[in-house]
Batch of 3 targets.
Target 1
Amino acid sequence: MSILVVGSLAFDDIETPFGHSPDTLGGSSTYIALSASYFTDKVEMVGVVGADFEDKHFQVLHSRDIDTKGIKKVEEGKTFRWAGRYHYDMNTRDTLDTQLNVFADFDPQVPHEYRKADFVCLGNIDPKLQLRVLDQILQPKLVICDTMNFWIEGQPEELKETLARVDIFIINDSEARLLSGDPNLVKSARIIRAMGPKTLIIKKGEHGALLFTDNGIFVAPAFPLESIYDPTGAGDTFAGGFIGHLARCESITEAEMRKAVLYGSAMASFCVEKFGTEKLCDLDLLEIEDRYESFRDLSKIED
C-alpha cells in the first residue's frame, strides 16, 4: 500500500538541557515519512525546500527508499527554519525563531503518479492546503490529519471543513480542549468526532495516548525511558508509525488500529532518544518489534 505524506521539510536549531543541535533536518513530513518507511516500501512526499537543501539531505530520505519526486526545490530561496529551546522537564519549549522562507508560498502540487495513493497523511500545515491536497487525490482508502493550536485559533472554519473529509485525526490533549471548547478529554473526543473523523487519537506526551472509535476507548501507555534527548518530531513520528502499520495490514480493524497506536508510540519513543531524525535513520525491524512487544507488556496482566 502506498502512503502519501504532505507537510513541511525544515532545518531546526534545537536546544535541550542535554545539548544543542543546529541545522538539524526536520519538518513534519520528514518525521512522518521516515517513520512510515519501516512498515511499507512505498512512501511518497510532497513538499518544498530551498537551495540550502542539499543532496546529502535528500540522501537521508532516499536511504529509506522514500520517493521525493513531489518535493519542489526553489533555487532562489531558503528552506523553512525553526529554532526552539526545551525546558528541563522537556514538556515545555520556547520558540526562539521561525523563518517560513519558501514554505510561505507552498502550493502543494501532487504528481499524477501519487494521486492514486492508498493512504494520505496530512502533516501540520494550513488547513486550506490540506483541502487542496485532498482535492487532488482520487480515492484514498484512509486519510489521516494533524493540526496545531495556530490553525485551531486562526482558521477554525477551514479546519472543520478539512475534518469533514478526514478518517483519522491526531492531536494532543491541549489542542483537543481548545478545538472542542471543553476541558474533559472524553467529552472533547465526542465533540471532535462529530465534526467528521470517526477515529480520534489524543496524544498525551509522556502519559501515552488515547484512541477513540465507535467501539470505545483504548489507552496506550508511554514507554518509560531513562534518557530523552529531544522530543522534537515525536508526534509526527507517532503518526508515521501509526499509518505505516495500517498500510501493511490486509484490513483495518479495531484490533489493528490499537496495534497501530502501539507501533506509533514505539517509533516516537525511538525518536526522542537522539536529536532530530538521527535515530529514525538507524533502526531495524527487530528493534521496532522488540519495542512494540515492550509496550504490550507494560499493560499485560497475567492470570
Target 2
Amino acid sequence: MTELVEHGQLFIGGELTDPLGKDVIEVISPHTEEVIGRVPHAAPADVDRAVAAARTAFDEGPWPRMTLDERIDVVGRIKDAIAVRHEEIARVISSENGAPYSWGVLAQALGAMMVWDAAITVARSFTYEEERDGVLGKILVRREPVGVVAAVVPWNVPQFTAAAKLAPALLAGCTAVLKPSPESPLDAYILADIVKEAGLPDGVLSILPADREVSEYLVGHPGIDKVSFTGSVAGGKRVMEVASRNLTRVTLELGGKSAAVVLPDADLDTTVQGIVPAAWMNNGQACVAQTRILVPRSGYDEFADAFAAAASALVVGDPLDPATQVGPLVARRQQQRNLDYIRIGQEEGAKVLTGGGRPAGMERGWYVEPTLFGDVDNSMRIAREEIFGPVVCLLPYGDETEAVKIANDSDYGLSGSVWTADVAHGIDVARRVRTGTYSVNTFSLDMLGPFGGYKNSGLGREFGPEGYGEYLEHKMIHLPAGYESPATAATAAADEGAEA
C-alpha cells in the first residue's frame, strides 16, 4: 500500500496556515482505488484571506515594483527547482491522476519546467513601453500588470497548466491565487515549497485546493482582476458567466475534438507511429489529443488494420510502472463516462476495431482499454463530443475537400495535424483548418508560440508573447507638443555625431 500523504494546512500569502473550514479532500489512487492523500478543502473565508493577501501584495508590496530582472531571478529559481525535483513531481502526479510515469516525467514535470523557462525568454524580449506618433502628437504606450490573477487548473496536467498561468502572471508583476483540482492537490504542495524556497515575496501566491463551489466564489470575487481557467466547455461558460458580474477579464482554455488528417501520399508506418501517441497521450485525457483520425477511403482498410494493431499493442497497467503506456482514468466517473460512450458508439453503428471495455484481469482500478472505432460518421456523438479518455475514431473521407470539411465540422477548434509526403501541401491544409494549433507530420506544442482555441475551445491565448500579453493592461499617455523623450534625444544626438 502507498504511504498516505497528509497536509493539514493551506498555503496562503506565502505561509502554511491553518484552514478556516473543516472539510477535507481525500485523494484516491486511480490504480488501487485506495486513499493516498488528504488535504484541507479551502473554504470561502480562506479565499477571502488569499485574495486579500494578493491584493495587498499587488497594491503595496515589492513584487510589481521590482525590476524585470529581479522577478526573472526568482522565477528562474522556481524553474530550476522544478527541474531538480522533476522525478518526484512526476511520481506524485501519476499517483493522483493515473498518468503514465514514463510520459509524465517529460510532459507533467519537465514540460512544466519548460513552460517557466519559455516565459522567461518571452518576458526578456517583450516591449513594455513604446513611443508612437499619434494623430494629434506623440503618445506613449505602456503595458502594465493586470493585477490579481485567479488561476484555475485541471487534474490532467496540473503543473503544466499551473505554469502556463503563473509563469507569465508572475513575470508580468501580477500576484495570484492558484486553485488546483480536488483530484490532484498533492503536487501543488511541492510547488508551494518551491516558490517559498525561491524567495517569492509573501502574498504573491496562495494555493487553495477546492471544488467547483469554492472555485465559483474565487472567480466571482471582486478582488480578482483576471481569471485564467483550463477545463471543460461547461466549466468555462460558467466561469465566464460568474466573472462577468464584475467585468473580470478571462482567458479560457477548454476542450477539443481534434482531427488528424491523413492524406493519400502519407507513409503508413510513419503516420501510425506519429498519431498513436498523439491520440492516446495521458490515457486520452488531453484536450489536444488527436481523437478523430481522417483517412482516405482508398487506403482505409490498410490504415485501419495497422492503426488497430498499434493501439492493441499499447501497454496498459500501473501508472508508476515505467513500461506502462496507458494507465487508469482519473476517477470512477471518468471510467463510466468512457464505457458509456463506447456503448453509444456501438449503438450508433460504429465498429469496435480494438478494445471496447475494461482490460481483462484488471478488476481494480479505473481502467478502460485503448479503444478504436472504425466506420465512424462525423454526425455520431462519439465523433462530436469530447470523451476525454482512450476512445478514438477513424473516419473515412473521399477527397481532400471533404477531409477539410469534416475537420472543420466541429464545435471545437483547439488542435489538429496533417500527415503527407509533401510538407508544403500540408502547410496549405493547415491554413484551411479552423483550429488554434496545428502540426504537419508531427504533433507538438511549442511554448514560444500562441496556444488556444477557436469556437468552443476557448478565448484568449497562452504561451508566447500573445499569452504573456494576456496578463498586461495597455495604457496610453498623451505627450505634449514638442516633447522629446531622453532616449529619443540621445539617439538623435548620436546620429548627429555620426554624421559629423
Target 3
Amino acid sequence: MNNVQFNNNVMIKKTLFLTLILSGYLGYSQTKLDGYIETGLKNNEVIKQHNFDINKSMYALKEARSLFYPTVSLNGNYTKADGGRTIDIPVGDMLNPVYSTLNQITNSNAFPSLQNQSVLINPDNFYDAKIHTTMPLLNFEIIYNKRIKNQQTSLQKIELEIYQRELVKDIKIAYYKYLQSVEGIKIYQEALVLVKENKRVNQSLYKNDKINRTAVLRSDNEVIRIEANLETAKQVSKNAQSYFNFLLNQKLDTPIEVDESKSLPTEALSENTQNREELQKLTQVKEINETVGKLTQSYWFPKLGGFADVGFQDFDFNVNKDSRYYFAGVSLEMNIFSGNKNKYKLKQVEEDSKKISSQTDNVRQQLLLQFQVAQNNLKAALEQYNANKNQKESAKKYNDDITKLYKEGQAIYIELLDAQNQWVNAQLNTNISLYISWIAYAELERANATFTLK
C-alpha cells in the first residue's frame, strides 16, 4: 500500500470515528422533518402533475390492450335510386324461340313470350342492416405498441421518483437553513443581553470616574451593531421560513416546529450510485428504443384479421327468413416493398441506441463524481464543525476570564470587547458548521439515492 492510499484510509477512519464520537441520535427532529417531507410530497403541485401524466399513461396502456379485443358496430343503410347504369339481360332473346316451339308441340299458349330485362346497377328502395365485427388475429404492431405504452408508464414513474428525491433534498436543506437562522437569532439575542449589560456597567463606572467616556461610546456602538445584526438575522429567518413553506405548498407564514437537537449525521454511506433513478431512466429509454426497433421490423410480418357480418337486407323494407344473411371471412396483409422506408427507420433506431449508451456512460460517471464530491464535502464539514466546537469552548473560557478581570479592574474594555466578539463569532461559526454538515449529508443522501420514498 502506498503512502497516498494509507493517508486516505487514515483520513476516512478518522472522520468516521469523529462522526460517531461527536454525534448522537437525531430522533425528535428527524421525526418532525419526516412529517414535513411527507407533507411536501403530498401537497407539491409538480408531483400532482406527474401523477396526472402517470394516470394518462395508464389509460394509454389500457387503450393499447383494448386493441386485442374485437370491435363490434351496428351499421345500416338505405338506398333510393333511379337511372344510371344498367345491366341488360336478354331473357326474351334466349327463351322466346324455345317457348314458341313448346307451344307448337303442345298446341297451346302455355309458354308466353318474355321481354328482355334491364336492371339498374344501383339498388332502388333497398336496405341493409347488420352487426359488423372485426378482430385482429395476428398483428405485431399492436403487440409492440402495447409493450411501448407499458414501458412509457414505467418511465413516467421513474421521472416522478427523480423529482421526489430532489424535492426531499430541497426540503431538508431548507429546514436546516431555517434551524440555522433560528439558532443565529438566539445567539444574537444572548449577545444583545451581554452588550447591554456592558453598557450598563460602563455607564456606572463612568459616573464613578473609573473609566473614560470612550468605553461608554464604544459600548453604545456595540449595542447598535448587535441590534442591527439581530434584525438582519430575523429577516433571514423569515425568508428561510417562507421558502420552506413554499416547498410544502402551504402559507408562507406558517409556523415551523423547531427541535433543539445539536447532533450530527451518524450514518456512513457506501457508494450506491448504480441504483440511481437517472440510470434506471436511461435503461428504460433503451428498452423503449429496442421495442421501437422491433415495431419497425414488424413491417415485414403478415397481418391477419377476421371479420363477420350478421344482418338483414331486402327491398321495400321486407323482413323475412330470406332477408337474413351472414358474411364472414379473414384478411391477410403482407408488405412487399416500401422504397426502403423501414430500412432507414431501423438505421435511426440504431443511432439512437448508440446515443443512449453514450449518455448512460456519461451519466454514470457524473453520478459517481457527484457522490464523491458530496462525501468529501461532508467530511470537510464535520472536520470544520469539530474545529469550531473546540474554538467555541476556548472562546467561552477566554470570555469568562476576561469578563472577571474587567470587573476587577485588571483588564481594559478593548480586551473585554475582543473576548466577547470572539465568543459570539465562535457560536455563530459552530452553528453554521453544524447545519452545513446536515446540508452536506442531505446532498450526499441525494447523490446516493438512499432516502426511502414511500
